[in-house]
Records
---
Amino acid sequence: MYLTIIVVACFISLLVIYLSILKSRYSYFQCRGIPGPSPTFFLGHFGIIWSTKSYSRQLQSWTKQFGSIYGIFEGTRPFYVVSDVDFLQNIFIHQFSSFNSHRISFLYKLSKSVHLIGADSARWHQQRHAINPAFSAAKLKLMDPLIDRCIESFIEKSSEINQESNEFDIYKLYQRLTMDVICHCAFGIDTDMQNDVDNEMMAKAAVIFKQDVERMSLTKLSYLMPWLTPILTRFLLFQTVLFHTLHRLAPTIFPDLTDKIPRFWLLARVQQVIDARNTESGADTAKRIDLLQLMLDAKTTSQHEETTREKGLTNDEIKANIFLFMVAGFDTTSTMLANCTYVLAIKPAIQEKLYEEIHSLEKDKFDYDTITKLEYMELFLREVLRMYPASTSVLTRVCNETTTVCGHLIEKGSVIQTDLFTIHYNPDLWGPDDPHEFVPERHLTKRHPMALLTFGAGPRICIGMRFAMMEIKMTLARLLHDYKILPGKHLEEGFQLRDGFVIQPDAVYIKLQKRN
Ligand code: HEM
């Protein structure tokens, strides 16, 4: 009897302590004089965020109410939502050492094969240092014939489909194009996604892109109760090892996870390509110019990778990063191409100006050197990047040591989330022309270094930015050289932007008219 009373009393006391800690966490912003909407107990503001259709619009609407720096809670974790560009410049650039990681699901960090987006501090630094040279201008120049081959196939397919229909969704063809480009340039494998529509790689990748890891229940649980993360991590690792062992012991009863889980399937394909490379002669590998080979060249030669490597990448890191390039480069780049095409279809005068510039080069092939001469194309793309940025949720930083930024004391563990749309549509940053109007020439004026954030900023800026811009410019130059883009009947209906990890339209319906 006494024992029961003691147990119940202990339980109630612990519950009261836990609840009062939760409550006191919610005074975090109030104590610092930072405004914000009122939190809901336990969920903070993430009940609203998880149920809203558009994360970006929700942030923007709170910004209108609470200003350029305000506070919300993810569970009890403080989340600063910021559209003050000077404050962000400190976070992303000047005080990078105190804010060097993304806020990202623990599911990306499960194994030792953490990739660039998931890596923190020293591990990120080592990887970035090793991978940066693979994206240099000199290396990209070598890759342009690979990209050109994929564009050729894209143009042929577009022309074929265009002849068969009154309008077609070019976004689908862009997705196949960017997947082809990634396969050629990252894996070094010859694919033909335009014609091989049932390609297994494309199908597996499509499943991966549909999964929004940030909205998975396990991710939400770990955000709400961060202390659960190590337990969840161990549980998932144990589960994977258990399934692999069971499959080895009784393959007929327990299926191979590699076939069941698309991510494992893709990683296994990367491993096969790496194995094939390891058996190639030195002369053959010397001829290869893809990202995989460049990373293999930067690989550590040590047997005891974790303890003795200094600058190289481990085998697992190479695999994880090749996988990441696929995920990070496919959807973003095809979406940017789709957004550009939408604008070209509704702005014929801008399209003609671009055509004139492309035509003046007197070329019908566009390589790295040629596209760098297209000045108006650069302005046009920047304006598309401003008005239709690809992702808000990736633009975060976690505070890894308590510090003061612009007079605000920010505690270790807090998250900084950029309110990208407010910045990109801010008339003080982008005037005097109305930011809701599409005006490429506004980029001739020097702007604040944090005014355009589609690729992020600071040391963690998108590593594939130059690669993506090269691919987009080469594709548009070739398309506009051969065709005039006309709006399809269902263009506006299809161009409904959905806000997931990438902000993307449903479809871009157009018609192509051959130029003489
Ligand atoms: C139009 C296309 C693209 C857009 C809009 C885009 C956007 C972004 C953004 C916003 C970030 C976060 C930057 C930050 O936190 O400051 C990022 C990071 C990254 N992107 Fe891209 N990206 C694109 C294409 C690519 C391509 C083609 C690749 C690779 C082939 C790539 C690989 C990466 C990687 C590896 C990171 C992580 C960098 C790090 O944390 O050090 N991206 N990207």
Note: Residues 302-309 have pLDDT under 50 and may be disordered.
---
Amino acid sequence: MELKIQMLGTGSAFAKAFNNNNAMLTVDGLNLLVDCGITAPKALHELGYNFNDLDAVLITHIHADHMGGLEELAFQMKFIYGRKPTLYLADTLVEPLWEHSLKGGLQQDASETLESFFVVHPLKEGVSHEIFPGLNVELIGTKHIPNKPNYSLLFNDFFFYSGDTVFDPDLLKDLVNARGVRIIFHDCQLHPPGVVHACLSQLLTLPDSIQERTFLMHYGDDQPEFAGRTGKMRFVEQQRIYAVDRLTFAEQFGMID
Ligand SMILES: O=c1ccn([C@@H]2O[C@H](COP(=O)(O)O)[C@@H](O)[C@H]2O)c(=O)[nH]1
Ligand SMILES: [Zn+2]
Ligand SMILES: [Zn+2]
């Protein structure tokens, strides 16, 4: 049973050279889409997927680069594939996702709710939930936009996926030193200040023992100019397939194409 990750995109919210920072996690042929931004429908198509190939979708927060593709997903699943997609999200996001984002486009009848379009699985923060056999996720509440719910993800107790978060070195140290996290995919704003994201200059203050297991995503279009300027950290490459279990350290960096 191998966990693989392929980023549909590795770009920031304003990037144009990269798609939105959305990921496909695959275990034993089952596909979990982590975030479904504005560019996700086209990015999936470019990788040879259609929406019916998705076994579940998980949303970290309600910015458009993370959920702006859900309207098309819901409509395609309803009108083309005739089934409801499975949606995982924090219990605190269920109401705002519908009321503040999706209702305006999806609702055609006043009786329709989020559950009219998705099989909704609300998740509790701090609890390990089985998504598929061999894939568990724990939501970790992290700071992004003041007073708005936002979550990072811990997969199978060893793979931390930050989503969008401000720099939180104490969390990262606790995850690695106390909880045994081996791999970190972290958002990285290339230019300071990191007001709503971790920025590169902050991430570079992490000890080497954390940097060497950290892979950077959610970056801007000038990312190529930062090659060789990321300390022990590496950039995640859009569309490349990584075998997460084999990413224990940079030297054991595994790739499947
Ligand atoms: O200079 C900036 C530009 C944007 N923001 C905030 O970022 C988010 C949108 O980007 P995400 O990657 O989806 O978080 C939005 O809240 C903007 O206000 C910023 O703070 N500074
Ligand atoms: Zn974002
Ligand atoms: Zn965001």
Note: The CA atoms of residues 23 and 145 lie 21 Å apart.
---
Amino acid sequence: MVDFLTSRTFASYTNYAPSTNQQNNTLASLATLKRYSQDQKYRKQLTREADANARDGLLFNVKESVPELRMTERRTFMGLCCQNCTFTSRESLVKKTTENLALINVLNHEVAFKSGFLSRTFSHVFQVSQLKRYAFPQVANLVLRDDRVKKAVERVAVQQLKDSDSTEDEFYQELIKKNQARAKKLVSDMRSTLSDFLLRFTSWILYKLLPCFMNSVVVHPGQVDMLKQASKTNLPLIFLPLHRSHLDYILLSFILLNNDIRSPLVAAGDNLRIPFFGSLLRGLGAFFIKRRIDPMMGRKDHVYKAVLHTYMNLCLRSGHNIECFLEGGRTRTGKPCMPKYGVLSVIVETFMDGTIEDALLVPVSLNYEKLIDGNFIKEQLGEPKKMETFGDALKGIWHVLNSSYGSMRVDFNQPFSLRELIKTFDQNNKISNPNVSARVLKSNPSTNSLYGTDVVSEEHKSLVENISKHVIYDCAQSTSVMSTNALAFLLLSKFRQGITLQKLVVAFEDLKKDLELSRRDVGFSGDAVDVINYAVELLGPALVKKEKLNGEDTIKPIAILPNVIELSYYSNSLVTHFALESVIALALSVAEIRLNTVSQDDLMENALELCSFFQYEFLFCKPCQNLEMVITSCIDDLIIRKEIFLPEAESNELVRRSRNIARQFEDDDEEEPFQKLYKINTSKEAMENVKYMAHILMPLIEAYAITGFTLETLVQRQLLESELVASVLKEMKEQLATGSLNYDESVAVDPVKNALKLYQKLGILECHQEGKLRLYYLKEAYDNSESVKLFYNKVNKYRTGNLLIQ
Ligand SMILES: CCCCCCCCCCCCCCCC(=O)SCCNC(=O)CCNC(=O)[C@H](O)C(C)(C)COP(=O)(O)OP(=O)(O)OC[C@H]1O[C@@H](n2cnc3c(N)ncnc32)[C@H](O)[C@@H]1OP(=O)(O)O
């Protein structure tokens, strides 16, 4: 079994390339690949073959000359739900065959049709006409009649009356009407008008358009099978995807629709409510929410919240599925963002107040070989974000249709029961905190207001936080690694100065094996040399340079600003994967090393400090796990996989000896407390591995350190966030120019903002927010140069660890 994405590409190019010796003539093959992948005739040929294969029980033609394309080859099956939290869900929906099914390209739906001239010629019309019909109840007109909205209107009117110092009943009635009118407008702006006809029609158009710019959209049929079964339970499915591109929600709805799974209503930011496209999206399932629920005149916007809550409540009650991008926007860095909680908290409360008996959560991750909409370089370098307009949308679509973006992969995780998850969290909460009465499962909607401040609400908040983080963690774990991710990662973390193709192939294979060992699937297959050449071509010469040096093919990253920001976007998928290993390498680099040994306590202390520094960058473990245990098991893993530490037997021997020596020298008979020691493998290869792993997070360390350094500008003064970020970026660019900063990609807005958030959390900074403006100043205890410097050194020490400069 192979990944359809490259299997198809490479199978096809092997089958059709005129070159007889593809191994020796990769460049020629690559050119052929590109030419043929754009050739419509070739596509038709492929489809005809696929049809024939489908009749023969195969998905695509497997010639004997391409043995690696056998579909029986096992590949990693990702996305099963958490064994700790959702044991019962994990046992459900999976069949023995689920894991073993071969990947499919959903753009090739016509292969399913066995015969009939008409159905083959009009296969897509036939396909969409055969889909299951769903009723999509419209609930918007019920919102204003709901008690929650009525109460919110009254509450706000009473408040406004008090503010006006008037007691006149007439004025109060006027305020009621005004707030009712506002509620009506909010509902009308928010509501979705999901239409079965529009979905089918769009699906037909997508069948025509998607192949113009994508090779394939690959899914695992086992995962889709789980969804189909889940949808038969009649429980609402809550799709929670990571957000990379505007294509995410289009492809998700497209895949669900074409597999007879009820299309979801999607929480869309109201910035997308632009002329024409807004109405179109509304008809395809979008319901519009404010990107930020800003307070109205300094107070919480109770009317808006009641409207949102009631609308979602009614949708779930009437059987709609819902989709929400927990990250609240597309990732700008290629790493998953920390979740936002508003929409999910409504869903959780809808379950807890008994409106729905349960819901099935479905984490989803999507990955693209080439990013389709924008590369966020300007934004990362400090230019303000541009609002979407009608013109931009048109221009964007035109540009996309005329470009080539390779393949993409969608991974649906196993659906799991919200009820079961909450029950487990509740039980764990009882065990770890017996004094807090666990009321989570039987909360009362009238007292447990979503936006209230009582004790139960705090419990509710931490529950929603845990669920959201679990989902983001799960999504990150089940994101397939694309060829461009692997190439960008190797080039930026290991071969910044360039590397010969031959050596890169070896590193590429190693990386693939490493990923397989940690149960990550990759979105490519075939010979590494072909995959690398293909990825080089996709990334393009602005990001990766291929040249002949001393007669050898050499690949070099363009590791300078601004290009490197885009390259690091691709690499960051894997930076997330290796973040904890990098933390351990950095922790080791500053630890106290005696006789080539390091104490577990020392290593753990540093590692925990780094994890806390990067709490807004990565989720290092699931909420149901203990971070220390996860770090320990990662160290154990490094002993086996990277041989950075020697195996335990040797380390234990060392502990025994050191304790004996200690007893001989100390007068008192008291036993030394047991300290686990790790013996470091000092071989050249192991030391190189430490450096390589440490460097994975070095751009972030630099960004955090320079942000700390720039806090000096805040001593005895205040700055707006935009000014502060601008001065950090300026400082970074200056340090880059003088060579004190090593990584161009450190110069990016995202990590700087996260660092500011962290320093605020650590109690160094204070932030005063008014509307969209954030004003930063130092806390009293830190409002002097010495304290700022001390703090800066605390972060900066990781840039200059002993093992890294040897
Ligand atoms: C056939 C083919 C078809 C193809 C064609 C298909 C097309 C199909 C449709 C297209 C559709 C487009 C889709 C676009 C994709 C996007 O537009 S992504 C962007 C929009 N989506 C989202 O942002 C969703 C996630 N975001 C949220 O949930 C955010 O919380 C909200 C609701 C946007 C609000 O954000 P915020 O103002 O920053 O506020 P936040 O701090 O998160 O908290 C808000 C409230 O939540 C509550 N809250 C906060 N933390 C917690 C907590 N831990 N627990 C409980 N409650 C909490 C608080 O009570 C808070 O209110 P306050 O107490 O502070 O007053």
Note: The chain has 32 helices and 17 strands.
